[in-house]
Every structure is written in C-alpha cells, then in structure tokens.
Amino acid sequence: MSRLVPLVAVLVVACTQAPFSSPDIKEPARADVLVQVGNASVDPAVARVKEGGNVAWTNDSDFMALVSFPGTDASQLECKELRPNFVKNGNTLESLPFQAGAVRVTLPCALKKGRYPYIIKLFDSAASMDNPKFTLSAEIDAE
C-alpha cells in the first residue's frame, strides 16, 4: 500500500499538467481534400486546399446532408457544370441532398485563393430540409 500512494500522486500531478486540448496544428494545403460530415462535426472544420484544388464531402452521419455556400455566386468559384452534385439556388451555391454512405459529393469548381465559408444542414428527410436537425459551419481556405 505504501508503494501505491507515491504512484497515485505522480499520476495525479501528470494528469493536471497534461493539456486537455490538442494544439492548433495547421495542416498544409493539399491538392485534394476530403471533408467528413458527422452527426455534430465537420472534419476538417477548415479545409486547406491549394488554389485550383478539389474539395469533396462524405456523409458519415445518421442524417441526410446538404452543403451550402450562402450568398456565394457560382461565378466567384470558376465552376464547370454544377450538376450532378450542385445547383445554384438564387445567390447560393448548394449541393443536392446526400445520404450517408460511400458517395462523395465533389465541388465542381476550381477554387481561387480565398476563404469560402459554408454550412452543412443535417435533416431526417427531404421534406424536412428547411428545418434541419443540425446546422454545422465550416470553411474552405484556398491558398
């Protein structure tokens, strides 16, 4: 018992000194970035992509997902044909709803340098698209 007390004391001190969050490590920009959508998370929250690079999303949540660039005109993104994954809805560029699974939804736009904030709406069915269960915010940083 006497040897256990110092061991517990060392563990207590070590645990209080350890950081509880990981440092903000800046990932290098990549030519292609895959963003994973979870039930309440987007990984990476800031997708760092090289200018002209590609961004795609996979839905690993229990919901249908829709990626939306509110107020972003498609001409700002140098987009090719938006279909089959994206449409322009007024002044908003958005994906068609996609379910969880192996399907990747790829942004068909060559990205210029800049920051592109977007949201992901998670909903139960197409009928509830206007009333999402969750709305997640994320960003693309093209360098």
Q: What would you say this structure looks like, in words?
A:
It is a single chain. By secondary structure, the chain is mostly beta strands. The protein has one domain (29-142): Cupredoxins -  blue copper proteins (Immunoglobulin-like). Helix content is 10%, strand content 42%. Strands 1, 2, 3, 4, 5, 6, 7, 8 and 9 form a 9-stranded mixed sheet that branches. The longest helix is centred in the N-terminal third of the chain and has 14 residues, at 4-17. Residues 6-23 have low confidence and may be disordered.
Helices and strands in order, then pairings?
Layout: H1 4-17, E1 30-37, E2 42-43, E3 46-59, E4 64-69, E5 86-89, E6 92-95, E7 104-106, E8 114-123, E9 134-142
Parallel strand pairs: 1-3, 3-9
Antiparallel strand pairs: 1-2, 3-7, 4-6, 4-8, 5-6, 8-9
